[in-house]
Amino acid sequence: MPKERCLILGGCGFIGSHLADSLLSSGHEVRLFDQQNVDTRNVEDILPRIELHRGDFTNTADIVAAVRNVSCIFHLVGTTLPSRSNENPLYDLESNVGGTLNLLDAAVDAGVRKVIFSSSGGTIYGVSEHLPTPESAPTQPLCAYGVSKLAIEKYLALYHHLHGLDYGCLRIANPYGERQNPLAAQGAVAVFLGRAQRGEPIHIWGDGEVTRDYIYVEDVIRAFDRVMHAGTTERVFNVGSGRGVSLNQLLQVIQQVTGVPLDVRYQPGRKLDVPVSVLDIDRMHQVFDWTPQVDLTSGIAKTWRWIQAHHTDQADRR
Prior knowledge:
Elements (H helix, E strand, L loop, with lengths): L4 E5 L4 H12 L3 E6 L16 E4 L5 H8 L4 E4 L6 H4 L3 H22 L3 E7 L23 H20 L2 E7 L1 E3 L11 H11 L3 E4 L5 E2 L1 E3 H12 L7 E4 L5 E2 H12 L5 E4 L14 H7 L7 H15 L8
Parallel strand pairs: 1-2, 1-4, 2-3, 4-5, 5-6, 6-11, 7-10, 8-13
Antiparallel strand pairs: 9-12
Helix pairs in contact: 1-7, 2-4, 4-5, 6-8, 6-10, 8-10
């Protein structure tokens, strides 16, 4: 494959840093874009080998500078969380969708070859009648975060139609793995492991039967690599394990891996939580011969070892 100069928006974060490692190992040039005060510990080992641009995703001048002379963009930036996006849908729209439109305009002007977007398999479909849920299923998101993700997918299709800008959308389920922040507000695996390590209670919304599709970060990165080089008319892909795991089952695996007694406390459920979200990953398999390689127990064990090695204190980490 030809070597390219790639831009990763949100490149210092959990998935972005793993993606940067992978692109470098394949011989590509890598530029990262992240916020001014970003914690760079996830990428400290590769800082001498990459460009790091700091700025504001919603600032047009910052984005124009970031996309200059790159051929492939990985859009991993998100300014809101699913659990909070309904509190201010207008901000979610303006920052995520508006910021992305500025990005797409800059990409067209700069002659970018392709934009690959990190969408959401967990929020776009809403309560689906089809389980596992294929890409062709109706999209009925229950939070503004999911609405924005879906809108960005549609704008990518529009810019492809109007300007010939190639694109791919990865509807990622619930990714987990090393470098995921155990002190964050989302990411059940890392958050639960972090609380287990610190001896803190684990809070569960509802009765613990909410079911999700968990996918290890290395498998997600393999999916990005496939879509980067895709020459297919399909542009939207579910990326998950294809297997549903309830929160109670997840806690059992965490207990098994860590050997730590868990203090689990159940709270009333939330309206934004879809009861079951499991992705049909057949399209990824058929188009790219991609299937997940890391099972849940092995992935959680890897993540647990990393948390023990890197989170021995209370310092926050992005």
